Amino acid sequence: MAITITAFERSPDGGKGLARDTRVRWALEEVGQPYEVRYVSFKAMKEPAHLALHPFGQIPTYEDGDLVLFESGAIVFHIAENFAGLFSSDANARSRAISWMFAAVNSIEPSILEFSNARLFEGDKPWAQERMPLVVARMHDRLKQLAARLGQNEWLDGEFSAGDLMMVSVLLRLKPSGVINDFPSLAAYVTRGEERPAYKRAFAAQLAVNGPK
User: Fold this and answer.
1) N or C: the chain end with fewer CB closer than 10 Å?
2) Hey, how many other C-beta atoms are within 10 angstroms of the C-beta on 148?
3) How far apart are CA 122 and CA 129, in angstroms?
4) pLDDT(125) > 80
5) Coil/strand/helix, residue 38
6) Which domains are present in the chain?
């Protein structure tokens, strides 16, 4: 049976590749594994059939035979563990890549999501003007730390890994606001990720469904 993932029937981002199925598509493209996509509506995501796959009613999910996974980071980790191409054969390098995967979703993404939500959904709140500078400052602190660690290196730890895939996927959320351009080394890092053939295939596949008709 082919690997099957779930994705939005129509993504809220209109095809910008910000929905989390894109990072799973990218991982599968990097390791050369074919996959099928089952598209689900917002209504279907909250129904029992999908909740059996994802207890929080979100996407993506991953099905391969009897195995069902949810959470994009866990799915990418599973793909990297089971197919060559995203983890080094060196045990220490593999462990460092896992550290960067966790850093992407635990240290970097929360501040970016806080910023995105404040910008898109809370701008009309009476406390928004006072809160936004604090939100931006917290995010900038994290991005400065990441930029300092990356330096002028091409990737976070030698060769491209699942750590880079997750980190680039998270940083892509800053493109619509233009914030990524305040950190030239991170902007260049994201561009290198976008230029990988596997990313281009993943992006094109989701754009074909979500882009302008």
Assistant:
1) C
2) 9
3) 10
4) no
5) strand
6) 3-86+198-210 (3.40.30.10), 91-196 (1.20.1050.10)
Tokens representing 6 are 């779930």
Q: CA 169, CA 198: separation in Å to the nearest integer?
A: 13
Backbone angles phi, psi at 87, to 5 degrees: -125, 140
Amino acid at residue number 13: D
Token pair of 40, please?
A: 């689900």
H helices within 31-127, ranges in order? 42-45, 48-51, 72-82, 91-103, 109-121
Whether the model pTM is above 0.70: yes
204: burial class by Cβ within 10 Å (0-12, 13-18, 19+)?
middle
Model confidence band, residue 56 (pLDDT cutoffs 50, 70, 90):
very high
| CA distances to 21, 47, 143 from 130, in Å | 34, 39, 21
Q: How far is C-alpha 46 from the geometric centre of its chain's CA atoms?
A: 22
CA proximity to 165, closest of 155, 178, 175, 174: 155
Give SS3 for 12.
Answer: coil
**Contacts with 206 (C-beta within 8 Å, 6 or more apart), sequence order:** 7, 11, 15, 17, 19, 21, 22, 25
Half-sphere exposure of 89 (CA within 13 A, CB side): 1
Would you state the structure tokens that stand for residue 205, as one six-digit string? 């596949």
- What is the phi-psi region of residue 8: left when phi exceeds 0, alpha when psi lies from -120 to 50, beta otherwise? beta
